[in-house]
Amino acid sequence: SHEIRTPMHGVLGFITVLARTPLNPVQASYLHLLQHAADSLMTIIDSILDFSKLEAGKIQLRVAPFPLRHLLETTVQLFMPNAQVKGLMLEWAVDPQLPEQVLGDRQRLAQVLRNLVDNAIKFTDGGRVQVQARLVRREGAFMTCHVEVRDTGIGIPSVHQATIFTAFNQVDASTTRQQGGTGLGLAICQQLVSLMGGCLTVDSQEGQGSSFQFEVRLQIASTDDFMEAEHPGLPSINDEDEQYSRSVQLRAAKPLPPSGMPPARRSTRSTRVLVVDDNPTNRALADIVLADLHTDRDLVSDGEAALTACRQQRYDLILMDLRMPGMDGLETTRRIRQLGNNPNCTVPIIGLTADILGVNYEEWRAAGLTDCLYKPLKVEVLSQVLARWGIGGSSPDPYSIPRFL
User: Fold this and answer.
1) Is the pTM above the cut of 0.85?
2) Helices marked H in 196-302 — which ranges?
């Protein structure tokens, strides 16, 4: 996973950087085609790696508080531009009886919904795509949510419906050429829904459209659950509490910043970030992204150099590659946390990873990571992270920034 994704993230990162430079119309057109091709390749890589992880039984649901109704609505809204390009009506209805806050894997639920809506739009040339989510039942602290994605597209012949959830299966070989894809999306969705205690089914008529439906059982979040999600605090090495959450939508009259503490008075010195990454392409990309954010930065290639830098300089944030030869990112983080009176032992350390198969949140938290970002680095995402930890950048909605730890 790491070996495949890292070079691709370098490509994607520098495509983004190049797009921010002056280009003539022809160059901009070529770059747009390059971006589309690279994104498509990355999607295929992600699908294959995701499926491999599911087949190996290595995907674990990441249970944390999140706003269910908000997630359903915003996920569908992401596809409004795609629908408009094709002249389709994209409609959604979310049952107001669904609880606002639940405990579950926000990322995986959104992944399933994105795939179904994306497919519906791809295979519908006229008419509409409708998404409905409703409460089926409440059982004590748990509830069951039913989601349906219906379209007026080409439909699926009955002879193919029994195998539509089989890996690498596509109804028509020409589909790959016309719409792209690996034939893994529905197989992945089926397994993810199964992990969430449900089942994904299809009802379709050729030439009339399709309806994909699934149910998931989720725990209703308590007040303590989402208050902890709002004010998680800075994790410490010995902190065993859940310090992570996805976005929550509770609004206080005067909400605290994500650290759970009043905002510290800002000093007049400039923001300084330490980047620790053994890959020179990644370091160069981080240098450009941080320069765009007007931050001072030091770039080092290994853990020993990071420890030396921390003994000599005070930083506001550390970006730590987790996969490095010799002393890896987690061990480097542990040693920084153990520097005693050194001011860097308490600064936010953000892990950087390209490895979706090697995720171990418990180990990350135990090592002292504050948060984690998937590569490639993007200006807007890093700006939000800096702002969330009171370091700089703009001031985005703190509830909209996903946390991993």
Assistant:
1) no
2) 223-230, 280-292
